Structures are given as structure tokens and as C-alpha cells.
Amino acid sequence: MPKPPVDYANVPLPEVRIMTNRLLSAESTEAVLNAIDKIEHIRQVNMAGESLPATISSGPAKGLPNNHTERKIIHVDGREVELHCLVGAFYIELEVDDSDMLEAVVKEIREACDKTIVDGYTLDIGRYSKYRPTLNDYRSA
Q1: Rounded to the nearest 5°, which phi and psi values hold at 67?
Q2: Labelling 107: which of 34, 56, 83, 93 has CA 20 to 30 A away?
Q3: Strand partners, 48
Q4: What's the average model confidence in pLDDT over 83-102?
Q5: So which domain of life are we looking at (predicted)?
Q6: What residues does 15 pair with on adjacent strands?
Q7: CA distance 138 to 114
Q8: Domains plus CATH for the chain?
């Protein structure tokens, strides 16, 4: 795992968690990411949801290719991104200086989500991913 730049080491930057009411299709995920990509002060976006593995890992079809219709390559700001999951959550880390800037960025994110997520969502502000090494990072495998 690459280490963060020194500026961000051990600094708990705020995150926005967007939980969708339904799992998004590849097209909807692409629309959300392209809308969010235009917003300033976003450091990174992580997605979570139901896994879409390249090969089936259990059952009678174990080892065969997974021909799921939503396992696609989407285009975000001109870059190709392969979807490995049906997205149900976005974790957006923000690079903001104060609460006024935070509120302005969250307002822009909410507007982007209102336009692109049709089945509804919940938006929360907090810290949802770790920002410093934990005991598990020091254990050997």
C-alpha cells in the first residue's frame, strides 16, 4: 500500500459517505463519478458494493469467466476504469481548510448526486477510512 504524502500523514481529513438506496448500474456509476470529478477540493473517491469477480469463485461453475453484464469499463474524465463491483457507496475524501469550505463542497456534491442518483441516497460527513497505520499494518502475513 503506497504511503500518503507527508502533508496528509496522520491528518484526519473529512470524508463524505454517499450510500445509495439501490446498487447502481455501470452507466449510473459513470454519471455520478463524472459529476463528482468536476468538483474541486476532492482528494480521492473510493467505491464499495457487491463484488463482481472476473472468475466465479464457488459452485459448479468455479473457475469459469464471470459474464456479468455490469462488469464493464467506464470512462471517468477521459480515463478508463474497470468496475469490480456494483457500487452502493462512495467515500469521498475532501481537502478543505475550514467548515465554510466543507459546507460549500458538500453542497456541490449533494447537487451532483441529486442530478445523477435517481433512486435516492443518504449523505453523511465524518471519517470512514483509516488515515494512519494500525496494528494490523505491522503484522507479518
Answers
A1: -90, 50
A2: 83
A3: 89
A4: 93
A5: Archaea
A6: 93, 126
A7: 41
A8: 15-130 (3.30.70)
Cite the DSSP H helix spans in the chain. Answer: 26-37, 99-116, 135-138
pLDDT (0 to 100) of residue 3: 46
Query: Cβ-count burial of 109 within 10 angstroms (0-12 exposed, 13-18 middle, 19+ buried)?
Result: buried
pLDDT band at 140 (very low <50, low <70, confident <90, very high): low
Instruction: Examine the pLDDT at 141 and tell me if it is beyond 80.
Output: no
Note the pLDDT tens digit of each residue in 1-22: 444 444 555 567 899 999 999 9
Distance CA 138, CA 53 (A): 28
The 10 Å Cβ neighbour count of residue 86 is: 19
SS3 (DSSP) at 123 = strand
By C-alpha distance, which of 124, 127, 45, 128 is closest to 90?
A: 45
Query: pTM value?
Result: 0.84
**Length of the chain as a residue count:** 141
Q: Of 69, 68, 86, nearest to 32 (Cα)?
A: 86
Q: Which three cell numbers stand for residue 57?
A: 469463485
